[in-house]
Design a protein that fits this description.
The chain has about 130 residues and is mainly α. About 95% of the residues lie in helices and about 0% in strands.
Amino acid sequence: KATHTSCEGIIKSKDAMISELQSELKTLKTAHAPCDAQIKELKSHLAKLDKDLHDELEKEAVLAKQLAEEKRKEAELEKNLANTKAELLKDEASLAEDKKVFASKDAEIKDLKKRLAAAEKKHVPCDD
């Protein structure tokens, strides 16, 4: 019976310890409840930020494609502009040459008119 009494003492002691630990656990859980709520709120906020980041990265990818296309178009326009300038220079050179020819022909025409006028002055009309 003495052994049994000592077992009962140990059991009561362990029961008291278990009760104390359960009480401590309950206190800790209660103390951590606000932290759990805050963690849940932060996780929710983090998920929203992650989605926003994903959306922004998608927008950035679209803008990067648009920028690449605009740069391609710009390069094409620059090439066309260079070609057009080269053609313009040729046309201007041709025009300058044409102006020289026209000036020369104008001088010839003026000379012919002058000679015609002089010949008409010297001409004696014929009586037929």
